[in-house]
Amino acid sequence: MARPLRARSPPSGTCWAWTIDCPTSTRADLDGSMTSLHTHTTPLTEAPLRVFLSGSCVSRDTFEFLHPESFELVDYVARQSLISAFSPPAPVPAETEAMPSPFQRRMSASDAASELPATVEAVATGTDVVLWDLVDERLGVWEHRGGGWSTDSVELRAARAMIGAPASDAVHHAFGSAVHRREFDAALLRWRDLLIESGLRDRTLLVVPPWAERTTTGEATPPSFDLGAGQANALLTDYIGRAREVVGVPVVGADDPLVLADPDHKWGLAPFHYDDQSYLRLALAIAARCARPRTGHQGIPVDQRPPSVRATSMRRQDAPPSVTLFSVAPNTVTATVHRSTGRAFAFHLFSGRAILARQHYGPSREHSFDVTGLGRGPFHVKAFVLDDERQRTSVVSPRVRLG
User: Fold this and answer.
1) Both ends of the chain: CA-CA distance in Å?
2) CA-to-CA distance for 203 and 161, rounded, in angstroms?
3) What Å distances lie between residue 181 and 142, 187, 349, CA to CA?
4) Where does residue 372 rank: exposed (0-12), middle (13-18), buried (19+ CB within 10 A)?
């Protein structure tokens, strides 16, 4: 079935005028604890909004609270400071091969290659919403003596410690330093120009909740690599102000006074690993920025309006599993299973009805296929998920054609 026509963008510097599709009682709950917030909307018949994520855990974890019938993930670029993204490529760190997950290794290589601009250009025509956060700025950047910049990250630090790698000869510039501010300001100009040229500035939201100073149990949050929540929030205020001024996109979550950190967060305790209610408020704010009035907008015929949206208190992993397929390297396609608590995963690569390759059951929910010599596609993957009771579920990815 053909995808519904997408309406043109609103005036520069604004997002769509949105209404959230949830009952009055839910709206009232926003002023309270939200401990039992639920939505009760009818199933949507319109296509979901296609979301591109540029950032790290803040936007990615918030995405898990956006209803899967209303939002789908197009692509995700993480561990890439804007400074690195708009600099000449840098050497791939030697520590990259020691990183335990394919995603971490892929993002490290992508950062070294400064791939964010090329990725945005590649997905622009298939993207309805860009969620951008500043989490990857927090550890600063490396300025390489041979040219180029790269992003410092938790994964790089952990891998360096694990293999005992010698100290880099690059120069480190901390978040908030004079050099970091200067380079970030310059990168903002190029980020703005890229979003305008790709038609995405009017579809971009900057998601920047404050770092939580307290946990849900009332304890003070620990610093993250010597950066405490209070200090980080003071720095973020300046960076957010510059982003507002230069890029001119709406900001979500910056004024939320209720953010709390979750001591039992799946990524561990940190000031930017929030509790469910904090994520729900962010998801509702994003949904409120995304839902279009059913009478159309600015003269757009109703039958051409983009789909309405909603947020839900159920995590996306409570919905049926799904599998995405994308390419971030030549002759490689990567499949990732989402929203599944399975114990083992297998993957079959298809072109049409022909099975081109198989990956047998293993613990990783992600697998990359080398498609050298197999043409440009379109390819799709059928993923098999085995649960604790050895019951099997299969899901099929969308089709991808290599450029």
Assistant:
1) 23
2) 40
3) 14, 10, 45
4) exposed
The model carries a pTM of 0.67
CB-based contacts of 315, cutoff 8 Å, min separation 6: 64, 65, 276
Q: How far apart are CA 226 and CA 9, in angstroms?
A: 42
Structure tokens at 172: 């480190």
Would you state the structure tokens that stand for residue 119, as one six-digit string?
A: 């990725």
Name the DSSP class of 235: H
Return d(Cα 188, Cα 134) in angstroms, integer.
12
Using an 8 Å Cβ cutoff, are 306 and 55 in contact? no
In this structure, what DSSP letter does residue 400 have?
B
One-letter amino acid for residue 52 of the chain: F
Instruction: Going from the first residue of the chain to its last (403 residues), give the mean pLDDT of each consecutive group of 10, the final group possibly shorter.
Output: 33 34 30 31 58 92 86 90 94 82 85 92 94 96 90 85 70 96 97 97 96 95 94 97 96 94 88 92 89 41 40 50 68 80 87 90 89 88 82 82 74
Q: Is 45 exposed, middle or buried (0-12, 13-18, 19+ CB in 10 A)?
A: exposed
Structure tokens at 148: 């180029």
